[in-house]
């Protein structure tokens, strides 16, 4: 299969630093396919930036060097990133309480493997449809899923799980069959919180990936840009 990808991250119009980190890498041997990651750090400007970049680096290192199947290797890599960030925060190599969301997608052969923690998101765009592949792991979203409609916005941005916060972590995992023409979109909440799913589909469908990334970020910033916004797009051919 042939992959094309593009990524873009922007600080937004309010914050002074960018705690998001986006990453995409192709395996030159073809065995591991394409790895894409979006991580949105938390714990303050310095801590969040350290945590998100540490997550990306750890996942990339372990995923491409392991002997496991792509899905097992990706899960192993995310759990290792969780342990590494937690250790760094406790032992002075980062900020106390730092952590990060992590949405990691590995496309190998005709299967996409997803490992997800936090409230960044992954979508599949196929033909004229958009499907969200991840479940938001936030206090607000979990209350809604439990049938409790919150009376306020309290907890909307409070994560129920993130890399680095707890030694025991159960990420969301998922596998998806891949077809030629599929497009995958990964983004932080600074984007999806301001751009609706139908708008994501309208912008990305059929457009060059670089132009679509730029248009999505510009749209978030025109709507105030209160947070860092990050998007990764990957298309599959063949």
Could you characterize what this model shows?
- With 238 residues, this protein is an alpha+beta fold.
- Strands 2, 3, 4, 5, 6 and 9 form a 6-stranded antiparallel beta sheet that branches.
- It has helices at 45-65, 70-90, 139-145, 189-192, 197-204, 209-222; strands at residues 2-10, 20-26, 34-42, 99-100, 102-108, 111-117, 121-126, 129-132, 172-177, 183-187, 229-237.
- It starts with a strand and ends with a strand.
- It has one domain: 4-Layer Sandwich (Phosphatase 2c, domain 1), CATH 3.60.40.
- It is 32% helix and 30% strand.
- The chain is built from 6 helices and 11 strands.
- Helix 1 packs antiparallel against helix 2.
- Strand 2 and strand 3 form a beta hairpin.
Structure keywords:
Phosphatase 2c, domain 1; 6-stranded antiparallel sheet; globular; 238 residues; alpha+beta
């Amino acid at each position: 299969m042939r992959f094309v990808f593009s990524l873009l991250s922007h600080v937004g119009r309010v914050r002074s630093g960018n705690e998001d980190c986006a990453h995409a890498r192709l395996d030159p041997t073809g065995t591991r396919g394409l790895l894409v990651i979006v991580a949105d750090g938390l714990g303050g400007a310095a801590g969040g930036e350290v945590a998100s970049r540490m997550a990306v680096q750890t996942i990339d290192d372990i995923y491409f060097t392991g002997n496991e199947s792509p899905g097992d290797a990706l899960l192993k890599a995310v759990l290792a990133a969780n342990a590494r960030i937690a250790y760094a925060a406790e032992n002075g190599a980062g900020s106390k309480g730092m952590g990060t969301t992590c949405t990691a997608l590995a496309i190998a052969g005709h299967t996409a493997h997803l490992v997800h923690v936090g409230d960044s998101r992954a979508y599949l765009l196929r033909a004229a449809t958009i499907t969200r592949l991840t479940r938001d792991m936030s206090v607000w979203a979990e209350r809604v899923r439990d049938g409790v409609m919150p009376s306020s916005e309290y907890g909307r941005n409070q994560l129920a799980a993130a890399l680095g916060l707890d030694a025991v972590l159960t990420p969301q995992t998922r596998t998806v069959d891949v077809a030629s023409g599929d497009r995958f979109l990964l983004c932080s909440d600074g984007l999806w919180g301001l751009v609706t799913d139908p708008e994501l589909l309208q912008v990305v469908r059929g457009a060059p990936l670089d132009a679509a990334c730029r248009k999505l970020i510009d749209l978030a910033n025109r709507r105030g840009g209160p947070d860092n916004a990050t998007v990764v797009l990957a298309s599959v051919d063949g």
